[in-house]
Amino acid sequence: AQSVTQLDSQVPVFEEAPVELRCNYSSSVSVYLFWYVQYPNQGLQLLLKYLSGSTLVKGINGFEAEFNKSQTSFHLRKPSVHISDTAEYFCAVSDLGGYQKVTFGTGTKLQVIP
Amino acid sequence: ETGVTQSPTHLIKTRGQQVTLRCSSQSGHNTVSWYQQALGQGPQFIFQYYREEENGRGNFPPRFSGLQFPNYSSELNVNALELDDSALYLCASSPQQGLPEAFFGQGTRLTVV
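Above: the input entities. Below: the structure tokens describing the complete assembly.
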């Protein structure tokens, strides 16, 4: 069974400051890793994904994440946030092969303060 | 290329009633998954359909059922609605079974009163 832990339920940060949203996962098999963003009353939009290869993954809107297998982490970072980044961010895992079931964390609300 | 579309966007039902939610998958995608997102929670996997057959299911009771049609669109049916079924229901499509990337629709907000 897989699980995802997002320790921070809310993260306030000032505009143009850097931010890191933390994600740890647990799985007995190799996994794919994702970050999704959800704006109010919207569905989920894929920010970035790690499938294999380079552990530093770049996504849309200036976000990047680093896969750390030894620490089972996949933290999301952005060097300078904008007001428009205010949203909820979900980390997710999917195991390799078989049917694609995605297991999500409980989400982190990023609030960018002007 | 059209994205994943869901209908209706909002729905209010009474406890005990039945509901059907619909999803049109993205063009060329043959795999559809459904998720339930309760308020303040992450999405929870309900089930997945591939080529008109259910091929994976999460921890949801049998009153949650689904269909996938030859054009790969899908329905989620929930019988005997309970208050706890109030949630955002998300549909996601993938271009091929086993590929990890899912594209989500905007969701259907179901309120059970």
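Note for the figure: Chain B touches chain A through 31 residues (CB under 8 Å).
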